[in-house]
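Worked Example 4.2. Consider the chain below.
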Amino acid sequence: MIQGYTPPTELARVRTRALIVGVVFAVLLIFGAFLNRPAFFRAFLVGFVFWIGITLGSLALLCLQHLTGGVWGVVIRRVLEAATRTLPVMLLLFVPIAIGLKQIYPWTSTEVMSSTTALQQKAAHYLNPAAFLTRAAVYFAIWSLLAILLNWFSLEQDRTADRRFRKRMQMISGPGLILFVLTTTFAAIDWVMSLEPAWSSTIFGLIFVASWTLSALAFTILVMSWLSQREPMNAVVQPSHFNDWGNLLLTLVMLWTYFAFSQYLIIWSGNLPEETVWYVARKQGGWGAIALGIVMLQFGFPFLMLLSRATKKSSQKLALLAILILAMRIVDVIWLIEPTYSPGKFHLSWMDVVAPIAIGGIWLATFVWQLQKRSLVPVNDPQLEQALAPAHGH
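Applying the procedure from the previous section yields the following structure tokens:
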């Protein structure tokens, strides 16, 4: 650990509390599994999709930072790296989804998949348990390799101050971002879009690319706001840093909105029954009001607030906005998944609330544990001096 940038001791308390919450809610969730197995697995998918979004979005932001070389990312690099190191936990948490395939996915039923020729072809070539689990293994292998290399090179750069490691991280990050977009697209198709096997959208994966990266940045801003009020980061993090992250947050809010609206516009203008059925299920029985809430609170309000420079420079205001965005991200994931099982009527299980908290507690405890392991800034990064310049009055 580098002297001077040691993580605050308060993190240990945060880790303990997160773990306690995670374990208590996990016990509640296991109890729920005995009461209603299908509802348990579906709620688990909601929690898993939300939290792996923060893990993978952090990996994307890490690649983006190495590729662009922006000083905006130097200060948050350790937070992003710690988030990517939660991947082994997410891999373990994928096991219940693998076990509950028949309760989650309609395509596991031969009766459903033999109803049309198109579905028969999908079942033969793509939508079957063996292919699904093989693809998931490939996704995790790619994500893990990227995370391991970027974390290892960053640590070696800290240890040796060798500038070659910066070049290596940059070289990995270009192909890494392309792989992230491809794997995220296919993972979104497999894990969420295939809940309705007869429906398809070419833009669905890109919605997840934007929303997962948005989740990760909102979470990072929240962590940095907390750290900036404590030593040693109170002498490092400046309003100009929050301004940069606010600008990027605005960009991602707009990108998510663009993709989500493009999908809606294409399906609405096409007006084909096999395509519109997905939106019809998400507009009836109260789901329509939730959709409107997502539009207003995940796009409208953040967009207007982030136009203000004063909001972006204030760590407290930006943190509150980040909390709102993260809350709406969970609502959005529920809106994407749950109407599949109750088309035409609003239905929500208590486990849909418990599962994200249970998984979140375990994820957060792992994240804090990883964050405590290293210096809070990459001390031998060539851009560090430039990133810290405002702190020294330059």
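The chain has 18 helices and no strands. The two ends are 27 Å apart (CA to CA). Compare this with Example 4.1 before moving on.
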